[in-house]
Amino acid sequence: MPFNGIEYSINEQNTVILLKKACPYCDKSYQSNQKAANHIVSIHQKKVDRLVSGNRSFGMYNKANIQKYERLGFSIVVHYGCVSCKETFAVKEALRKHCDLIHIISSQPGNGYLKYFV
Ligand SMILES: [Zn+2]
Ligand SMILES: [Zn+2]
């Protein structure tokens, strides 16, 4: 059903948080936490621990969702999702600090790699 702007009363206060998966240490974005962890260990020489993943209550920051929510009149707020746990951050710098502080278990590459990424 195409949205024609009449069926919904649009509240300008409406904002939706969309979750962007991006490397905390550079601008690369990724599709899965697994890929992110592999990227971080190979590019940044940091090994992150992996917590049990669960469903975040946010939609993903992708083209489909952006278009969907823009059409519905939402303001989109981007949050950055942690690669290891369910935390999200409005500022990427905060995500980086969080990862450094909580999830980096080794900065030595190649040590026990498979243990964490199988
Ligand atoms: Zn990176
Ligand atoms: Zn985390």
TrEMBL record:
Residues 80-103 form the C2H2-type domain. Keywords: Metal-binding, Zinc, Zinc-finger. One of its GO terms (molecular function) is zinc ion binding. The keyword Zinc applies. InterPro entries: Znf_C2H2_type. It comes from the Eukaryota. This is C2H2-type domain-containing protein. It comes from Hesseltinella vesiculosa. The lineage of its organism: Eukaryota, Fungi, Fungi incertae sedis, Mucoromycota, Mucoromycotina.
